[in-house]
Specification:
By secondary structure, this protein is of the alpha+beta class. Helices cover about 50% and strands about 15% of the residues.
Length: about 350
């Protein structure tokens, strides 16, 4: 058999060979989106990738995304993609409608839904829209409770016990007071630490789905030790250098350190950004300190917490130069005069209050 017997083979073969050498066209992946169901404002409950449009959401089993909340209609909304990267919401439910920002949409209305915006269906079912064409956010680093954190927690608890014993011994006025008072102090301290930690753990379970119990124990124990050390450091420094302001305003430093501890607890128990939490905690700290100073002045006519040197420290710790007898007596005369003036002011205030009551 030759090519002259079947000339059509000669015509067909070259085309067939060209077709076999060409690569098949790649199927273009459709541009889609991800619907994220959010619980309690931040916790992601479910994510549904969508590549077919339109997409319906509702309680009926025929929807693409089925929600069980009774405030959701059988077919609540229908999502459209008129163009790549553009999304529209068509409201189908006639009962509760949809909230988009501060605006409410009823049945039959349509509006544009941009990726990253929050949509609220029914009585509070919240949806986010994330386009698959946009880059993903940075992966959050997760650090589980490690052995180093466990060792740090154990050291903080031991140091806290030692500090409690030392302060109890320093303030004891009778022999054997340390043995009687220390067990009760430790019981209250450890019990308070447990209650405090359980509260933050429940908050973490509510907002993030993770309790983080030992993480909160580490934060609380280290915070308690830091506040105790700060109080001791300010008292000793005030005594050694004869700076009474350090002792009188030690509570303000403790409040600031407590705000830092609360910030760490909130970081572990919520998904709110660190900057937002810092602004909120800082604002509450300013309000709390202002209210405390105002109340202190109104009730005791002074901004400090207590009188200088409420606890006597060893004389060997004092670095300030020795005060002469004349200077000491002059200081006591000034203090006596201040106390007399304050007593007179309080007496005048009481007399004015009695006179106003009689009128």
């Amino acid at each position: 058999m030759s090519q002259h017997d079947y000339p059509e083979l000669t015509d067909i073969a070259p085309d067939h060979e060209e077709a076999s050498t060409q690569a098949p066209p790649l199927a273009q992946e459709p541009e889609g989106a991800v619907l994220e169901l959010v619980e309690r404002g931040h916790r992601l409950a479910m994510a549904l990738p969508v590549y077919a449009w339109p997409c319906t959401i509702g309680r009926a089993a025929t929807n693409d995304l089925v929600l069980t909340d009774p405030s959701i209609g059988p077919s609540h909304v229908r999502l459209h993609q008129p163009n790549a990267g553009q999304y529209e919401v068509e409201v189908l439910d006639s009962t509760n409608g949809v909230w988009h920002g501060r605006r409410h949409y009823s049945a039959g209305e349509r509006f544009v839904w941009q990726p990253g915006q929050r949509l609220t269906l029914g009585r509070g079912v919240q949806l986010n829209l994330r386009s698959t064409a946009l880059p993903l956010p940075t992966t959050q680093r997760w650090r589980p409770f490690s052995r180093a954190q466990g060792l740090l927690t154990a050291m903080a608890l031991v140091l806290l016990v030692l500090l409690s014993a030392w302060t109890t011994w320093l303030g004891a006025t009778e022999t054997g007071a340390l043995a009687r008072q220390l067990p009760a102090i430790l019981l209250w301290m450890l019990g308070g630490l447990l209650v405090w930690t359980l509260g933050w753990s429940m908050m973490g379970k509510l907002f993030t789905g993770v309790t983080g119990f030992w993480r909160h124990v580490c934060i609380a124990s280290v915070g308690m030790v830091a506040m105790a050390l700060l109080d001791v450091l300010l008292s000793v420094t005030g005594f050694a250098l004869s700076w009474p302001l350090l002792s009188r305003f030690a509570s303000l430093a403790s409040f600031s350190l407590m705000a830092v501890v609360i910030w760490f607890h909130l970081r572990a128990a919520t998904l709110v950004s660190a900057r937002t939490l810092a602004l909120a905690v800082g604002g509450l700290l300013v309000l709390g300190v202002g209210a405390k100073l105002g109340l202190q002045w109104q009730t005791q006519k002074r901004l400090g917490d207590n009188l200088y040197m409420s606890t006597m420290l060893p004389p060997e710790w004092r670095w300030a130069p020795t005060t002469s007898v004349d200077q000491f007596m002059q200081g006591t005369d000034n203090m006596r005069e201040q106390l007399q003036n304050r007593s007179q002011l309080e007496k005048d205030d009481d007399e004015e209050g009695d006179d106003s009551g009689l009128d």
